Amino acid sequence: MLASLENALLQALKNHRDVKRLVNAVSTLPQVQLNDLVKRYAFDAPALYVVPGRFVVRDDCMVPTFTVAAVVRNAAGHEAARKGDGIALGVDHLLILAVRALNGHRLGNCSWRMTAGAMVDDDLFFAAGLTALEMTF
Fold this sequence. Notes:
Layout: H1 2-15, H2 17-22, E1 25-28, H3 34-44, E2 47-58, E3 61-73, H4 78-83, H5 91-102, E4 106-107, E5 110-111, E6 116-119, H6 123-127, E7 130-136
Parallel strand pairs: 1-2
Antiparallel strand pairs: 2-3, 3-7, 4-5, 6-7
């Protein structure tokens, strides 16, 4: 069941007209070592990654949670990485694209709503020139 939900989210992102046009990679989180993961993020950026998370059971129904991670390069600095610089996308742009593609839609027999989001505050990302945002659906 989780695999079919993950596939539904991936397909919705990949098939969204603006995501197809503007995002280099839409994928599951690569299963590699942390240093290789950061290199992969840098290669793919701007990118969206779908990651299954916790789920709870309420009244005999599963309530899944997935994270969509948005990653951009911050060559023009951290502010431009958040807001964009008119040429490169910022994580704000990827947030809007993910919300448009997933929020309020019924995908894989589930209704999806964004419930939280947070900037990833990790020195490893900053050192690699990356900025990331996690969105919880």
